[in-house]
Amino acid sequence: MPPPRTREGRDRRDHHWAPSKEEALEKWDWNCPETRRLLEDAFFREEDYIRQGSEECQKFWTFFERLQRFQNLKTSRKEEKDPGQPKHSIPALADLPRAYDPRYRINLSVLGPDTRGSQGLGRHLPAERVSEFRRALLHYLDFGQKQAFGRLAKLQRERAALPIAQYGNRILQTLKEHQVVVVAGDTGCGKSTQVPQYLLTAGFSHVACTQPRRIACISLAKRVGFESLSQYGSQVGYQIRFESTRSAATKIVFLTREPSLPQYEVLIVDEVHERHLHNDFPPGCPPGRLFPSAPDLKVILMSATINISLFSSYFSKHPVVTGAREACSPITVMYQPQEAEPTTSKSEKLDPRPFLRVLESIDHKYPPEERGDLLVFLSGMAEISTVLEAAQTYASHTQRWVVLPLHSALSVADQDKVFDVAPPGVRKCILSTNIAETSVTIDGIRFVVDSGKVKEMSYDPQAKLQRLQEFWISQASAEQRKGRAGRTGPGVCFRLYAESDYDAFAPYPVPEIRRVALDSLVLQMKSMSVGDPRTFPFIEPPPPASLETAILYLRDQGALDSSEALTPIGSLLAQLPVDVVIGKMLILGSMFSLVEPVLTIAAALSVQSPFTRSAQSSPECAAARRPLESDQGDPFTLFNVFNAWVQVKSERSRNSRKWCRRRGIEEHRLYEMANLRRQFKELLEDHGLMTGAQATQVADSYSRLQQRRERRALHQLKRQHEEGAGRRRKVLRLQEEQDGGSSEEDRAGPDPPGAGDGVDIQDVKFKLRHDLAQLQAAASSAQDLSREQLALLKLVLGRGLYPQLAVPDAFNSSRKDSDQIFHTQAKQGAVLHPTCVFAGSPEVLHAQEPEASSCDGSRDDKDKMSSKHQLLSFVSLLETNKPYLVNCVRIPALQSLLLFSRSLDTNGDCSRLVADGWLELQLADSESAVRLLAASLRLRARWEGALDRQLAHQAQRRLEEEEQDVPVSPKEVATLSKELLQFTASKIPYSLRRLTGLEAQNLYVGPQTIPATPHLPGLFGSSTLSPHPTKGGYAVTDFLTYNCLTSDTDLYSDCLRTFWTCPHCGLHAPLTPLERIAHENSCPQAPQDGPPGAEEAAPETLQKTSVLQRPFHCEACGRDFLFTPTEVLRHRKQHV
């Protein structure tokens, strides 16, 4: 890259003057580009401290020009005093100075072209000029070294002044004597940054520190790396969900997820006082039980002293190092309660005027020369957006504020803007959620505005939904927020509530373990064999209802059996660091050669929605996004969006950022999907769930050479960007739009290649992490998914999401699009989320077909007969102002319930089915019902058996044991897939409705005292029927109970027989439906291993279309019919 052009160099280039090498040597000019290039070739090679074309190279030439001006000025002053002295722009290195100067005490040496044998580089350079250049380079290095030592001395003074410093030796001594140590200190006392460094100084070389949030990991790694004089990626690194800077030389690593413990000597669990879910669990376990693979692991639990009494009593068996108080400057607290207006309601937006009044008071009371930024605590993203809009308008008018949002949904680059410096005379106004209470420390905060509110996600175990609600904060949180204003000097805290409100606050926040779902925690506890979760000694035990709901959910997912022990799939799910639903999808998808689409869908469902809020109200964005929408559901829409984005990425002529902006898509979320997709793929490979056919094919030698060249260039771009981003001081720019961007690029002159000029660093990282050709191939193949593959993929998603099902309301067909209502088993009246694809086209969910009829001849929509009833599988049920179904996919109702339900109950002829105790299905023909039910039993048994064998086989391979289980063959998987598709394609009319509460209470006939019925060959496989102890009827399998439903015809169903002719042997006799199936499956002339369900080779199923129709067997033609009396007479006349 050419160096920065000076005024002289720019004028010559503008006149098309380009000196040659000989001209540059003959007419020496330090500002000539060719001269500088010759010197850079000689001194700034790849292995040198300063590399050619780097940010450091530009900084050197800037220093060199200043040094020239300084030397010229000094020389001119000497000439005025002593005109006889010779003129030198820079004294030669070999010459001795005439007078002593402290600047000449440089303890450095630089190897140049004449001393290191560089194969002729610089051989033609004048020796005097080389000496002058080396002298200037020494001055530059010495100047930088002195600056670094000055910063280091200041840094050491600041570290020594931290409250935690006086406890450093005590912490190390206690850790030597005990395996578990509790360190308690106020937020801001320095424990998060200093304790890892104390361990490093003491000789520990493998230290892991867990943090609850990714932004804390990144900021702490940068700070500790700066204080320990090591850039992160070497001695200090971080590892978050989608990024890692750790290397083989890393000694301290900050993580958001649980580390692999055997490789560490010390584990630091930070922010224990925040009471996160997994923080309340480990302290209750003995280290030997909690970390069996690392029995010598040292554990440090770090907590704030806000609730030291609780932690001290709980950790009485472990030593507690406490007393580190934050050195906080005086803080003035001003209570400004807001009067509630009678016209306001809960649905109205937050009033931003109180926050603007605080900005105005700061502008009037404090002059702009006095530094000090403002930190505003708001409850959520919606409130931040409301205040942000108003504050930006005020800031554009006063030109004295830069307004920045801060919440977890922002990208890392946008979050880092809050650490940038505001221009002189301008203050930062940071609008933040509670993320800035403890996880993020922002220097320069002098003013704090506390709204007194926080939004927290709570879990309702009865309704099985997540509820995002706004609460008053606790007194402890209020003190945490106030303390943010007194870190660098006296501060002011504006509390927008009354002092009496503060006195009424709860002392401490509710721990997370008492307000979230416990599925993953219970699964982890089961895998670690720590005992019954109900009796585990938590710091504060969770509600018993939450534990019972979690255990029941894991049983429904197949992770636990009836005795609450881990199943094979449960054992594997416990090893995968993903959500239970996502892990189940990955496991099921790996079985059916659907790994690529399942990887993409699972990754898409694991991140926040990529669709922006503004795009929902933009007709242009909606029109551009419409070709990507799928009428199958939201997962398939996200699937299409990701694949289309990958195709755009592969076309170098197209800009993916503009493509996303035009469709209202946040590209940052797509990058997260790609990163998570890669992690999921690596998990499957590590656990042996990807077959050889699914592995990556090796490219030819030319392709590998091209890839290496491209990756080398990308690494160069990334390195140059990191050098520029890490060394340039970032100053926020003040623009009319108040976008809060940083203007270091605008003031630093031209950037090196890749550090600017429109190069997207996220795109560079994306291409380094992923093989774009493989992603493009996967995206191209996804566009060619057949109808059969799509149906099989829906089965995989449906089973993974089960039991999260919703049934449409019976009267949805007469409602508007926005008024569609759905019911889950525990929650009625749920609606579609505004981002759901079905919200704009709900007609695809209606069971409309021409032959639809009612089961009793009426036209009641609630009992409509159809073969196209559908259910919604959803990822989550979220309640804000309404209960919303989030990320839905539609699946066939009857076939899905028969394959997935954990409880199936039938009446005597199996024409009435109840799934999971809340969904009733009425089938028009009992024979078809029995046939379909028997087929579902066989398919479920084969599916479960194949899955268990596959998991057992992979577990034996990982443990390198002798393989005892026969792996599932591709032919067996193909046969199972074919039969599943045939089963889901069966067309049998039925009605679907949700049972009322009273009907559910009187659903079963009750315990029976009659003995077990004899075995019916072929009907229920080899099952032996036994009376059910509570429902009545007969238990066929662990999920199917036969003849347990109450009905008016139950007393006579066993003896109701109609004439029937066997299609195989010609037997004609009056038989019940069960006797028909039993005879047909045991008939010696019946074909063996026929396809299951309604696709079996059998006569056409008779479908009742009128209540007057009765079974009729014609002796003349030997056929069976369903005829009314009139139709019987008409048929008999045909044989006269």
TrEMBL record:
Annotated ranges, domain Helicase C-terminal: 361-529
Comp. bias intervals (Basic and acidic residues): 76-85
Record-annotated Helicase ATP-binding domain positions: 172-324
Membrane-crossing segments per the record: none
Protein's UniProt keywords contain Nucleus: no
Keyword presence, ATP-binding: yes
This enzyme's EC code(s): 3.6.4.13
Segments of this protein annotated with the region Disordered: 75-94, 717-760, 1081-1102
Record family assignment: Belongs to the DEAD box helicase family. DEAH subfamily.
Protein name per UniProt: Probable ATP-dependent RNA helicase DHX34
Lineage, uppermost ranks: Eukaryota, Metazoa, Chordata, Craniata, Vertebrata
Gene name tied to this protein: DHX34
